[in-house]
Amino acid sequence: MTMTEVPLRAADGALGRRSGPDLCRAAHMTDPAYLRLGLPVTASSLAVLRAAVRALHSDTRAVRGFRAARKRFYRQMLCAHAARQAAGDQRTG
Predict the structure, then answer these.
(1) Are 8 and 14 in contact (CB under 8 A)?
(2) What is the rounded distance in angstroms from the CA atom of residue 58 to the CA atom of residue 74?
(3) Alpha carbon distance 53, 79 (integer Å)
């Protein structure tokens, strides 16, 4: 296991996913979860986080064991948004 790999956990729902810099490389504009947020390319990071939080069901947000997976999801949405901004994509959601 490399230093950037995350140990596999049943609560993650993201088996084999990586964290840190590898996560940003893996996040791309075709991520369906990011596209469902429907954000314009000019949205701020805070707006992306707020939309990502609203996208999760309240029961999912309440489960303490899913905290690491939620943080990974939020980071993935931020990385996908940053990649979209860098590409200059003008399409909304």
Answers:
(1) no
(2) 15
(3) 15
Q: What are phi and psi of 13, to 5 degrees?
A: 70, 5
pLDDT tens for the 93 residues of the chain, in order: 334 333 434 444 444 445 555 556 555 557 899 999 999 999 999 999 999 999 999 999 999 999 999 999 999 999 999 998 998 765 655
> Residue 16's closest CA among 5, 24, 31?
5
CB 28 within 8 A of CB 9: no
Q: What is the pTM of this model?
A: 0.66
Q: Contact 29/89 with Cβ under 8 angstroms?
A: yes
